[in-house]
Amino acid sequence: TSTNITGIASSPYTFNVSPTSNTTYTVTALKGANCTAIAADMTGSAVITVNPRPTAVVSGSVAICSGSSATVSVALTGTGPWDLTYSDG
């Protein structure tokens, strides 16, 4: 997908992107006030790597007596190591 931006008044120019998969961005056309760029004038690329969001699934149900303990399990996805905060409320 190409996006055309006009009226850029300063350099460097920045823009926000939100790809859902790994994406490489390049400049494919450039026109200044007086001239048009050729392919050799447009170099480099920006590589955006999209990491999967981590998920957590909590499980473990058991009846215990006061003063006893129970085990709660959390299955995690994504790339570790993870930071986890849990609550009893």
Question: Top keywords for this entry?
Answer:
rod-shaped, 89 residues, mainly beta
Provide an overview of this structure:
The structure is a single chain. With 89 residues, this protein is an all-beta fold. The chain contains no helices and four strands. It has strands at 23-25, 46-48, 55-59, 73-77. It is rod-shaped.
Quickly describe the structure.
Helix content is 0%, strand content 18%. It has no helices and 4 strands. The model has no long low-confidence stretch (mean pLDDT 96).
What is the end-to-end distance?
46 Å
**Major sheet: order of its strands?**
1-2
Q: Which structural class is indicated by helix and strand composition?
A: mainly beta
**Main pleated sheet:** 2 strands, antiparallel
Q: Report the portion of residues in β strands.
A: 15-25%
- Supply Rg: 25 Å
Ordered list of secondary-structure elements with their pairings:
Elements: E1 23-25, E2 46-48, E3 55-59, E4 73-77
Antiparallel strand pairs: 1-2, 3-4
